[in-house]
């Protein structure tokens, strides 16, 4: 069975987005070129940042039609991340709240991609 292991965000400039993700993820990129930067994550997943103007074929639309989720475990873990990310000055799109699936909040990256923190399904 084939399993996806890479999500790619189209960004204005990977060089401008790299410091944001380096700080957020606490790691260096595993690959970097002028048009594409990749971060390998602990769970075998990879995050790619691809210069929007060099994507082939060009996307038909841009905007946030999805989210990158960070599921964190432990009592108060979502609130801890919220306080940390807010203290870093990350733009908050959704303040800390409780939804059907538990506590959550959303921040935006430099290109407006939505990053949601929540608890894993139990």
TrEMBL record:
UniProt-listed PROSITE patterns: VOC
Domain VOC residues, every copy: 3-120
Endpoints of the signal sequence: none
Pfam family, one: Glyoxalase
Record InterPro entries: Glyas_Bleomycin-R_OHBP_Dase, Glyas_Fos-R_dOase_dom, Glyoxalase/dOase/EhpR, VOC_core
Protein name: Drug:proton antiporter
